[in-house]
Amino acid sequence: MTDVLILGGTGWLSGRVAHAWRDAGVAVTCLARGGRPAPDGATLAVADRDAPDAYAEVADRDWDEIVDVSSNPGHVAAAVAALATRAAHWTYVSSVSVYARADVPGQDETAELLTPTVAGEESEYGRDKVAAEGAVRAGLGDRAAIVRPGLIVGPGDPTDRFGYWVSRFALAGKGPVLVPETDGHHAQVIDVDDVAAFVARIGADRWSGTVNAVGDVGTLAELLEGAREVGGHSGTVVTASDGFLIDHEVAYWSGPRSLPLWLPADMPGFMRHRNDGFGRAGGVLRPLRETLERTLADERSRGLDRARRAGLTREDELALLGELGA
Ligand SMILES: NC(=O)c1ccc[n+]([C@@H]2O[C@H](COP(=O)([O-])OP(=O)(O)OC[C@H]3O[C@@H](n4cnc5c(N)ncnc54)[C@H](OP(=O)(O)O)[C@@H]3O)[C@@H](O)[C@H]2O)c1
After folding, report:
1. What are the backbone angles phi and psi of residue 57, rounded to the nearest 5°?
2. Which residues' Cβ are closer than 6 Å to ligand 1?
3. Where is the chain membrane-spanning (predicted)?
4. Atom 37 (ligand 1): residue with closest C-alpha?
């Protein structure tokens, strides 16, 4: 194994995949638009995948491994058309969002999928991933690995979701923290570097097939308690009912004015996918506590009270706590 091409490599997960391969002593080339650097030691091939000749610079040679993270089925199909004959093995990073049902716990890789988007149809994340998976399987056959991560967490997370909790507990210190009801809610997360190491591992093994890359299923209550401990919080924890949060326009899951990882009650399957295939294919999960600790270190370096892409501002949180009499 000497030459790896990453279609991407300047983003979050794909950057960590580039690191993992580089640390394995392999020559890594990242193909991206050039606005962000490739990781140290990797070569950047500048190209825009919207352009017809996007792969010209990397198509004149063979690759031991090609990794693609794109969610654009047109980009994925064009890359397969240009590069499939050049690749000994291909790993496509998909998502558990390909599954048709979010209400069924315990789904494995054989569960029903959404219908794929077709050219000209409006883009829809999960359906686009199904279409992209199909292009990779059709072009690569048994040289393809399809990896379906669930919620990816850890240092550098651009979505600011998971880090909200450990960061908020640390910021609040002895003050109160607002949490959602946790009865019946689960949490299933995977550290970004566990996904990256797995992608590199199956590439090295030339493993073929489709696999969920998800953590062990835990409860949301356990995750929040872990975040509280790691954040060193000693204040009160105030639970807001779903009705209170909805009435006060607090969003589920992600984004501004949200409580991250809180999900509607009709999605009990979304954070409860099977992960035995991940273990069988050589995947290793670090303890949640370790991920929380390194996430907090990253959150501290980025600023606990910075503007975030996900969660409540401390000001909004205190206003809601005030309404609850806390
Ligand atoms: N976050 C989660 O919890 C989660 C869960 C399940 C699955 N996933 C999947 O995990 C993957 C995340 O990968 P990531 O974090 O590396 O994504 P990302 O940060 O969005 O990076 C995308 C990469 O593709 C490159 N790129 C985008 N548009 C391009 C274009 N037109 N031409 C050339 N290059 C282009 C970007 O480079 P430039 O912008 O520099 O050009 C970057 O290197 C995705 O497949 C996502 O669907 C994520």
Report:
1. -70, -25
2. 8-14, 32-33, 35-36, 47-50, 69, 71, 93, 95, 149, 151-152
3. none
4. 32
